[in-house]
Amino acid sequence: PDKIIRIPNGVEMYNGEEIEEKQGNIFCIVGMICKRKRTLEGIQYFIRNYSKYNNTKLFIIGPLESNLPEFDQEYIKKCRLVAKEYLNKQIFFTGKLNKVELNNMYRKAKSLIFLSKKEGMPNVVLEAMSFNVVPIVSSMDGVSQEIIDNEIDGFILSDPFKKCIPINCINEISENKLCIKKIKEKFDIKRVVNKYEKIY
Fold it and tell me: Which bin fits 170, alpha (ψ -120 to 50), beta or left (φ > 0)?
């Protein structure tokens, strides 16, 4: 074990100065719409806690057609059914976005809802944080603790339906650009590459 060196995933760091203060309360869910990612629970979390505010929106970003094993059209139908009352008013299914479109969404979004059951080290969370998007995530078997300092630069929920993260708490992290600071310190691709280079 003492020979093992752990190096995190790295993401391209965008200049924090370019990321303007977030306008409105835009939430997003990014990735495959499937049971493992718990997209349905993410939608329910948004509806229960944030839909009552007029200026809140949720964008669900992920493919609506796919041949991947986890993809389930019936699951997407369930997600749409739960969101039915809010569809195209507060909740939007965008389909898959290209890199430029996704980055533009991150620039607007204030918070990422990511309640996945299990992940390696999710680049989605790191990429979102590099755009100062505040993550609200499940514990993911401890992976979240490797990325987020709970209630400092994001929120880790052991049970999403027992705790609502107030918008003012999200705002505080966003306004202080704490997510960008975390990525710059630990996950900037330049730092990660230097670690690899040092080992080689």
Answer: alpha
Name, in order, each residue with C-beta under 8 angstroms of 165's C-beta and a sequence gap of 6 or more: 49, 136, 155, 157
Q: What type of residue is 89?
A: K
Mean pLDDT of the chain: 92
CB count within 10 Å of CB 125 equals 29
Q: Quick one: tokens of 170?
A: 């999200």
d(CA 48, CA 164): 9
Residue reference for tokens 């939430």 = 27
Q: Which residues pair with 109 in a beta bridge?
A: none
**Alpha-carbon Rg of the chain, whole angstroms?**
17
In the beta sheet, which residues pair with residue 136? 113, 155
Q: 80: number of CA atoms within 13 Å, CB side?
A: 11
Give me the phi and psi of 57, to 5 degrees please.
Answer: -140, 150
Amino acid type, 123? N
DSSP-derived letter for residue 183 is: I
65, burial (CB in 10 Å: exposed 0-12, middle 13-18, buried 19+)? exposed
Rounded mean pLDDT for each run of 10 residues along the chain, 200 residues in total: 86 70 90 95 97 94 92 95 96 96 95 92 92 94 88 93 93 94 93 90
Query: Does residue 28 contact residue 58 with C-beta atoms inside 8 Å?
Result: yes
